[in-house]
Amino acid sequence: MSLQVKDLTISYGSNVVLKDINFTIQDNTIIGLVAPNGTGKTTLFNAIIRFIPINKGQIIVDGKVYKNTTRDVRALHKLVTFFPDQAELYEDFTGVEHIQMYRDIWNPEEKDVQKIIDRLNMDGYVRDKVKTYSLGMRQRLCFAMMIAANTKIMFMDEIMNGLDPVNVELVSRVLQEIKEEGKIIIVASHLLGNLDDYSDEIYFLNNKDVYFSYDRKTNTREFIKGYVSKDKLEALQPLPADTLYLETDRICIPLDGFEHDYDRFEVVELLRSLSDEEVSIGVLGTQEHYLRIYKGEQSLEPDTSDGEGGQTDEDDETVTGYTAEESGTRKSRRREETSVADSDTRF
Ligand SMILES: Nc1ncnc2c1ncn2[C@@H]1O[C@H](COP(=O)(O)OP(=O)(O)OP(=O)(O)O)[C@@H](O)[C@H]1O
């Protein structure tokens, strides 16, 4: 199975949201779809499933073009499901009834919904009415409904919303398991670190296009990753080519930029002494790519505004763009935006 999007353009009136988008996804694949709010992730899903009119372009599944005819759209809707919005749940129905409903529409030959309930650890509440559910319980129900539908192509918009860490892990694991059943799954999410746990490839939407994508299997170049404020950058110079210096003072230095291990260790030690935040070694993750793409790279040139090196707090705030009010939350913002990935080696 393959899903191909060809030259897709979508506008709302004069507002062109997506322009000439092209990609092909093969089965057994999870794509992480990343972009800031309002970039067009939901629009892309809605267009592929033909919930909204397509200005230009084609949706092709397994070589067949699905046009905007009743017959084609019906056939497409048998192949694709879209993660239900919690607002679509019926308060007076039970979770089991919702799961059965999705099973009956898309996958009636499946008799056993209990195995889905067990798989998602929902036995304790699934026979109660939805109106008694918390946010996270509803979210797990929406996911269970997708599993019951069992379509070849699944669009998951913000599936982790409201889930606690244990359930984020559970849903991430089940996503990987169902992928192996020959599915094409696209997950739009702002939980960037979590996307690295299960996605095969990450698409970043920007400037109305799939601006950049990277395949996590071939993304193997390792970096020393840490934090250093602009006024302390000089201590690390000279830095190898391809060093990234990102917003939140995140620095990523390619390991292959050093000839000897002892040079690498020296940089790790130096980074540790320059900041009290964790230093790690690993590949660039979605979080780092996100900062690079949407917030840009900062200059590695040493700050020469204070020749004596005695930089004040005020100077530091000016350089990095934080206001005095924000400075107290700065460290937590860093952690939120670029936490150390599970696969990284920590120091
Ligand atoms: N029905 C609509 N009519 C007009 N404009 C719309 C409509 N739906 C979305 N838009 C616009 O299209 C753009 C993309 O919106 P979309 O909902 O696809 O973004 P998104 O990336 O999914 O955002 P989020 O992360 O907030 O869910 C936005 O500028 C939005 O205002």
TrEMBL record:
Q: What organism is recorded for this protein?
A: Aliicoccus persicus
Biased composition range(s): Basic and acidic residues: 334-347
Q: Which Pfam families does this UniProt record tie to the protein? A: ABC_tran
Q: Which InterPro entries match?
A: AAA+_ATPase, ABC_transporter-like_ATP-bd, ABC_transporter-like_CS, ABC_Transporter_VariousFunc, P-loop_NTPase
Q: Which GO terms describe its molecular function?
A: ATP binding; ATP hydrolysis activity
Q: Which residues form the ABC transporter domain?
A: 3-232
Q: Which UniProt keywords are given for this protein, alphabetically ordered?
A: ATP-binding, Nucleotide-binding, Transport
Name under which the protein is recorded = ABC-2 type transport system ATP-binding protein
Is the keyword Transport in the record? yes
**Acidic residues bias: start-end ranges:** 303-318
Q: Which residues form a coiled coil?
A: none
The ranges of region (Disordered) come to 298-347
Establish whether keyword Manganese is in the entry: no
Q: Which Gene3D superfamilies match?
A: P-loop containing nucleotide triphosphate hydrolases
- SUPFAM superfamilies with a match to the protein in the record: P-loop containing nucleoside triphosphate hydrolases (SSF52540)
